[in-house]
Every structure is written in structure tokens, then in C-alpha cells.
Amino acid sequence: MNNRRSFLQKLGLLSAGVAFAPALLTSCDSANQKTGSATSSADLTANNTAVSPGSGLRDIGIQLYTLRELLPKDVKGVIGQVAQAGYQDVETYGYTPENGYWGLDAQAFKELLKANNLVSTSGHYEFGQYMKDGNQDIVKRYIDAGKVVGHQYLTVPYLAEDLRNSADAYKNIAEKMNKAAELCKASGLKLAYHNHDFEFKQYGNTTGYDILLQETDPALVSFEADLYWIERAGRKPQELFQQHKGRFVMWHVKDMDKTTPSLNTEIGTGSIDYPGIFAQAKVSGVDRIFVEQENFAAGKDPIQSIKQSRDYVKNTLLA
């Protein structure tokens, strides 16, 4: 998880050439509506529990952090390759008001997406300073950029340990999220929270994640379930979906290497029971999924890898 923490603590700085190999990269990451879809999150929770071909899940997204070693070097080329691999949606990361999206301002990035028949329904933004001081200016700047790009969600991707080291700290996070979510709502957006495994640490008879779920307003704050990290924490996503129906509007779909659980692998080749999880999709409220893979086997072409994962999701899990 150190790579992800280091990256987010230095948000805005470009990564320096790390090879895509398991030995070098450890796994560490990380009602949303389909653009133009007639299916809402309410629809998704209404009837059966299986995924239907008519749901918003038909448009498969990718968290661009997956391609963090390639993207800053050739934004236009990599976005084109993402589209060619069959993706329709991209989730951003690393935006700063100074550097924009890998050197492109919001309008230029939106035009790049449009040229490749892509949308961006969610973006990961750094909320650490806001959680410390409550200054909403940065949140407003995120909202301004997100509206231009076409986001439906601003997503909190990660919080440093000093912000989440007690039950009271999580209550502060929940309070700040509710306030930021009010700003998002006023601009036609919504706020979401993306988990790792540390949120499941016990504080007495509760966990940080329980606190966030209980103390954020369901009408304002949604959750992006990172299925890999839920499994790494020893929990089952299906149980959370049943306990908090309709709140997990987005998923991060990444698989766990069978021999080294700290590493990711292509969807369908690891140890996570994705058919069982997708069978509970409507209960969770999910309407958008983002494939993510944070490390690649030595010699594996990242673009081929993301295409393999996309094809498995499309042709097997959503068939």
C-alpha cells in the first residue's frame, strides 16, 4: 500500500518510470448513473439480484491509475488505447488545479475523451487537506473541473493515517464528507468514498467503515466498493451489500493473485469469486464498475492486460 500512499501524499507530481512488474509494484489502491441510461440505482435494487443486460453496467470503465506509468508520458495515445481496448468510461486520478489532468485542463481533457467516444463519470480527488482544515475552496475547484469533464461523482480515494486513527477521526471524516457532499449536490454532483482495507479496523464494537456508512447521509454520500480491498480485509462484499442496500453505486473490480494475495492479476484469473459478487449487483445499487489493476506480471503488456480483464467482465460476468 506504500506506493499508493506515497503517490497520494505527493499528488500532482508525475510518477517516475517504475517497471510494470510484481516485484516492484505492490497492490495498493484503490446513485451513479450511466450517461444517457434509462436504468437508475433505484431500478437496480428493485427486483432480482442478478445483473441484467439492460443495466448501466454495460459500459465498463477503468480507473486510470492502472496505467499511471504510461499515462503522463502520452496522455492522448494512452486514452486512445483505452478506448481501443473496449472501455467506455474512465475514472480519473491525480488532478490538481495547477497541472489539471496530466497537463490538460478540464475542457481539453473532456475534448480528448469525446474524440475517443469516452466519458468520465467519476474522478478521484485529494481530500486530505480539506479533512484537516475544513476549507472548502479546494472542493469547489474540484467541482468546477468535474462539471466540465462530465463527472457524476467526486470520489475520496484515500486518507492518510493521521486522519483516520480513531473512531472520533472517522466521525470527523463523515462530518466533513456530508458538508462537501452538500456542495456537490448544489452543483449537480455527488460525493463518494473509496475504501481500502484499513477502514475495517476495529474500534471497540465498530469499524471505521461502519462509522462512515452510519454517519454519512445516504441521500448525499455514496460508496465506491473496492472489492479487492474488502476481501483483503477478510470481509465479504455480498454481506456488506445486504447490510447497506443501494449504497455501493460504484465498484472497483480487481482480482487477487492466487499465490501472492498482495498482488493483483487479470480479472477472472485470481482468487476472488466474481460470479458470486456480480450475482448481488442489484442489491448493492451499483451502476458503474471500474476495472483496476495495480501491478502486472513481468513482460505483460498493460494494454493487453486491461483488455483481457474487460473482456472477461463483459463476456462472462455481464453475459
Compute the CA-based radius of gyration: 18 Å
Q: Please give the CATH class.
A: Alpha Beta
Which class best fits the helix and strand makeup?
alpha/beta
Write down the overall mean pLDDT. 87
**Helical percent range?**
25-40%
Q: What are the secondary-structure elements, in order, as H or E?
A: HHEHEHEHHEHEEEHEHHEEEHHEH
Shape descriptor: globular
Summarize the structure.
The protein has 13 helices and twelve strands. The chain is of the alpha/beta class.
Provide structural commentary.
- The structure is a single chain.
- The protein is of the alpha/beta class.
- It has one domain (2-317): Alpha-Beta Barrel (TIM Barrel).
- It has 13 helices and 12 strands.
- The chain has an 8-stranded parallel β-barrel with strand order 1-2-3-4-5-8-9-12, surrounded by 4 helices. It has a two-stranded antiparallel ribbon with strand order 6-7.
- Strand 2 (89-92), helix 4 and strand 3 (119-124) form a beta-alpha-beta unit.
- Helix 4 runs parallel beside helix 6 and helix 7 (167-186) packs parallel to helix 8 (208-215).
- It is globular and about 45 Å long.
- The two termini are 33 Å apart.
- Mean pLDDT is 87; it is low at 1-54.
- One of its GO terms (molecular function) is isomerase activity.
- Residues 81-314 form the Xylose isomerase-like TIM barrel domain.
